[in-house]
Specification:
The complex is a heterodimer of chains A (about 375) and B (about 575).
Chain A: E1 4-13, E2 16-26, E3 31-35, H1 42-50, E4 57-62, E5 65-69, E6 74-75, E7 84-86, H2 98-108, H3 113-126, H4 142-156, E8 160-164, H5 172-189, E9 192-197, H6 200-206, E10 209-213, E11 219-223, H7 225-230, H8 235-240, E12 244-252, E13 255-260, E14 262-265, E15 280-285, E16 289-291, E17 298-306, E18 310-317, E19 320-327, H9 328-333, E20 342-347, E21 351-354
Parallel strand pairs in A: 3-9, 3-10, 7-8, 8-9
Antiparallel strand pairs in A: 1-2, 1-4, 4-5, 5-6, 10-11, 12-13, 12-15, 13-14, 15-21, 16-20, 17-18, 17-20, 18-19
Chain B: H1 2-7, H2 23-51, E1 52-53, E2 56-57, H3 59-66, H4 69-102, H5 108-120, H6 123-134, H7 140-149, H8 161-186, H9 189-197, H10 202-230, H11 234-240, H12 248-259, H13 263-292, H14 315-342, H15 358-365, H16 367-401, H17 406-414, H18 421-432, H19 444-469, H20 472-480, H21 485-496, H22 498-513, H23 519-522, H24 530-539, H25 543-569
Antiparallel strand pairs in B: 1-2
Classes of the chains: A alpha+beta (about 375), B mainly alpha (about 575).
Chain lengths: ~375, ~575
């Protein structure tokens, strides 16, 4: 058990800057999810940690061990870093049996035979793969191979395990199961886990803390999941975690209007946001919208879709078709809005951001 | 904390940046040096020696050699034979590929295996057999026909351009056959089915859908035939020498043979080699032009079940035709070689009264022959093992390490593939007989170097294909589990590509065992190879002895092939 610290890491691929001066700490015995869109540099950071690529500046520590320090010229080779890893494609060696796969890291540590057996047994027990010891990976399903990969990571390090999109290749139901299992295993043994994913829902389900990385490899926000959902640090985090509608705002004659083809009066908006003089936008999550007959923002329901736990309404608002999510329970308690019905809309917890030039009129 | 115990000492300081000499760098360097020495130097030496003499430009010799009447006729023969063999071989290969891949003809798998057989044997064995059967007045069939039908002249003459073309076709058509059969297997049958549904007739589907889709496979196979035939030595040497029909490879051999190792002869050979390379290059360009007209990515990797075309009434006549073809190209030459190996003296009728095992006994007692077998075994195994490891190393460098200039590595390693064996041999002679300070002439090592240059690309291709299947994360997972770079290669990568390595070994071992084209130019008094010995025995008129030795060679090849299929079948979990 140890914490993982990245200090001021900079890395370029050729001329392309992947990240600059990045610092991140994964607390001891926690699951930290590093979340970001595909291609933002999450995997690159993992490869820095594992020692497959070398950052240009900064240092990496696991507990009190220095794995890399550009200034001191320390660069521990991958085999001496002792970090368990689960790759996206499992990377279970196809020519070895399940047991051989799990024993391999311990063979490299030259542990005594008895201890190896015992720990392999324990690891396989934790991932519920006992009884498959002599199987070859080709005889296992994707989910089972994944468990083997996790068991292998468990025995190779009891300090830190890195998981790089480990469940992306599994089907939805299995994904749920694996997430629960990873959580349980971590709870039992207390290993520090750095979990990399682009899937914010999986991240929310699993993590103690989250780090959100934007497209340019910058860390936008690090915090607990509630924090990130309720108090997103910037527009990127807000848009990335959850789905939202965005509307341009205009200020005319002391009133604020929401623009969607035509203008809707929207005076709930605090006028201070226009202080900078730049064009502004309002964003609202799909499930932060409610019907309110008093509201001057009026649209027409074109379609409603039932998704089991919630309803999705498609609403024609001016020239825009926007979506809105309502909890199924709420719908049952109140009445279900009919298609074709005219409704007034109110936005709870709206957020105001400077408008982006490229997508001034587009919902996120 | 039990992990920490093992970690002390080896960690942090051990891997200070720049202090360790990396394995990757070493492999990259060795690959470059090896390919430079083995491939680049010989090719460079040919060009240099053809145009330069004692350090200054000398085009005179080149002109005299190239424009001599004899050599022009040799070039014409080479081109005529090459083109005819390609056209006829492609048509035959295509026809049988379609018959076995797309029709409901019976005994498919058996016939497929039989059609591969000519690919295993050196064509010059076939030339020997057909020479015994159909040569002018001496051939068994000709004699029999003349006696039976009281003909004044022999009805067949294998010692002609037509004869050479016939024998080469029967050994080279499998190139197209194999390429097209596998392409047909991997082609999505719905493509053809949708054409039928759209109202196209069977014939139209074949012409408009099937053939265009397998065009890349056809042209790849045809090019292989063309290059092999242009560079081929054995068949024209055996069938053509007696009637003064020369091709470029046989003329080059004649030059070197006549010169008895003198430098002038080798230089003339080098000049002719350039001509041969020129012809082959034209063929390669031709293929590029043909191929660029359309390539398709519709052929998929996995095999599918195509709809078979019902032959109905034509089924049995076509089966008969296929069987007759097999008898003609496989059975007749094989039987002939074995029978002739049993006969007491060349020319005696092939009846049991004339049979003896003396010829086979002679093989064991003749030191020269046993030496030749030993040399060939030594050369084939060493070339196979060396090329297998070097091929894996170069493939690893090209595919996994990807250093700057990997394109040069790739090009150098596949270059000898399209360079005729004869030319390569001349390059090797020029490079390693003292001009550069190292003389291997008349030793077995010069043949080994030539084999390696010639066959390295085989193992490299087989290893690259296999390495591409090994995902980088497999090796990285091993590193993260505490394996050093070397250990991850040894424990993960090598075991995973082992089947390809074994296949690579035999891809080199088998052709080396029967090699003639290169060895005939490089052998010395004590370094005859199996192929050379058979050729030499026959050349000196000891035809039954040569046949007996060829029969032994055939047995060795069959046994080895059997071993290959057994080994490649057993792929553990890969």
């Amino acid at each position: 058990m140890a914490d993982v610290r990245f200090n001021h890491i900079t890395f370029h691929y050729g001329k392309k800057c992947i990240f600059e001066d990045l610092s991140l700490t994964v607390e001891e015995s926690q699951i930290m999810c590093l979340v970001g869109p595909s291609g933002c540099g999450k995997t690159t950071l993992v490869r820095c940690l594992l020692g497959f690529i070398k950052p240009e500046t900064g240092s990496i520590y696991v507990g009190d061990r220095c794995l890399f320090d550009a200034e001191k010229g320390i660069d521990v080779s991958p085999e001496h870093r002792h970090i368990g890893v689960v790759f996206q494609d499992y990377a279970v060696w196809p020519h070895m049996t399940v047991l051989e796969n799990v024993l391999y890291p311990m063979k490299k540590m030259r542990l005594p035979k008895e201890e190896m057996k015992e720990r392999a047994h324990h690891a396989l027990e934790q991932v519920r793969m006992l009884g498959y010891e002599e199987h070859l990976p080709s005889q296992l399903s994707g989910g089972q191979q994944q468990r083997v990969a996790i068991a292998r990571a468990l025995v190779s390090s009891d300090e830190v395990i890195v998981m790089d999109e480990p469940i992306t290749n599994l089907d939805a139901k299995l994904r749920e199961e694996m997430l629960t299992e990873i959580r349980l295993i971590q709870h039992d043994i207390g290993t520090t886990i750095l979990y990399i994913t682009h899937d914010q829902e999986a991240a929310l389900q699993l993590c103690d803390r989250m780090a959100i990385m934007d497209r340019d490899g910058k860390l936008c926000q690090i915090g607990e999941d509630e924090d990130i959902i309720l108090r997103p640090a910037n527009r990127f985090v807000f848009e990335f975690i959850g789905v939202s509608n965005f509307f341009p705002l205009v200020r005319e004659n002391g009133h604020t209007y929401l623009v969607a083809g035509e203008k809707f009066l929207y005076d709930e908006c605090p006028p201070e946001i226009f202080a900078s003089g730049k064009p502004m936008e309002m964003g609202s999550r799909l499930n932060d919208m409610v019907f309110d007959d008093q509201s001057p923002i009026r649209g027409k329901i074109t379609r409603s879709v039932f998704l089991g736990s919630e309803y999705v309404y498609f609403i024609q608002l001016g020239n825009r078709e926007i979506r809105m999510q309502v909890n199924a329970l709420d719908v049952m308690q109140n009445n279900k809005a009919e298609e074709g019905q005219e409704v007034g809309l109110r936005f709870l917890q709206p957020r105001y951001y400077e408008a982006r030039k490229e997508d001034h009129d587009e919902s996120a | 904390m039990n992990l920490r115990r093992t970690r002390q000492g080896t960690s942090d300081l051990a891997a200070l940046d720049g202090k360790t000499f990396s394995l990757d760098k070493a492999m990259t360097l060795v690959s470059f040096v090896l390919l430079f020495v083995i491939v680049f130097i010989p090719i460079f030496m040919i060009v240099y020696n053809a145009f330069f003499y004692e350090g200054h430009l000398d085009i005179e010799m080149f002109k005299t050699v190239v424009f001599s009447q004899d050599n022009i006729s040799a070039m014409t023969h080479t081109v005529i034979i090459g083109l005819s063999v390609t056209v006829v071989g492609t048509i035959i290969g295509l026809f049988y590929a379609w018959l076995l891949g797309r029709s409901d003809i019976p005994c498919k798998n058996l016939m497929r295996a039989l059609f591969m057989i000519p690919y295993m044997f050196p064509p010059f064995f076939g030339a020997m057999a057909w020479d015994m059967l159909l040569s002018g007045r001496g051939g068994y069939v000709n004699t029999w026909l003349m006696n039976t039908f009281h003909l004044a002249a022999p009805p067949f003459n294998i010692n002609s351009l037509g004869g050479i073309i016939f024998v080469e076709v029967s050994y080279y058509f499998p190139f197209v056959f194999m390429q097209v059969v596998s392409a047909l297997e991997r082609m999505d049958p719905t493509l053809e089915e949708s054409a039928r549904i759209a109202g196209a007739s069977q014939g139209t589907v074949i012409r408009k859908i099937t053939i265009p889709l397998v065009t890349p496979a056809i042209s790849a196979g045809a090019l292989l035939i063309l290059i092999s035939s242009l560079a081929h030595f054995g068949v024209p040497a055996i069938l053509g020498f007696s009637k003064q029909i020369y091709t470029l490879p046989t003329v080059i051999y004649a030059y070197i043979d006549r010169a008895g190792g003198s430098f002038e002869g080798i230089r003339q050979g080098a000049a002719l080699s350039i001509l041969l390379v020129f012809v082959v290059t034209m063929a390669l360009i031709l293929q590029k032009v043909v191929l660029s007209s359309g390539s398709y990515d519709i052929i998929k990797g996995k095999s599918m079940r195509p709809t078979l075309i019902k032959l109905r009434g034509a089924k049995y006549p076509l089966l008969l035709l296929a069987v007759l073809t097999l008898v003609l190209i496989v059975l007749v030459p094989l039987i002939m070689i074995f029978l002739e190996g049993l006969v007491k003296a060349y020319g005696l009728p092939l009846i049991p009264a004339n049979f003896t095992l003396d010829n086979f006994h002679n093989i064991i007692t003749s030191k020269q022959t046993m030496d030749a077998i030993q040399n060939s075994l030594f050369l084939s195994i060493s070339a196979g093992v060396l090329c297998m490891f070097l091929g894996v190393m170069i493939a690893y460098v090209v595919i996994k390490i990807k250093p700057k200039g990997k394109e040069i590595l790739e090009m150098l390693s596949v270059l000898p593939y399209s360079i005729p064996g004869t030319v390569l041999a001349i390059g090797v002679i020029l490079s390693w007989s003292g001009q550069l300070g190292i003389s291997l002439y008349n030793t077995i090592w010069i043949i080994l170097v030539a084999y390696m240059a010639r066959y390295l690309s085989f193992s490299m291709k087989s290893a690259s294909a296999s390495l591409q299947q090994v995902h980088p994360s497999l090796e990285e997972a091993a590193r993260a589990c505490g394996a050093s770079h070397t250990e991850s290669l040894k424990d993960i990568t090598l075991p995973l590509i082992r089947p390809a390595m074994v296949a690579g070994f035999f891809l080199i071992f088998l052709p080396s065992m029967r090699e003639l084209t290169t060895s005939i130019l490089l052998y010395g008094p004590y370094t005859r190879t199996l192929g050379v010995q058979i050729f030499a025995l026959r050349d000196s008129g000891q035809i039954p002895q040569a046949s007996a030795l060829a029969a032994v060679a055939i047995c060795i090849i069959i046994i080895c092939n059997f071993i290959v299929t057994q080994i490649t079948k057993d792929k553990k979990g890969v």
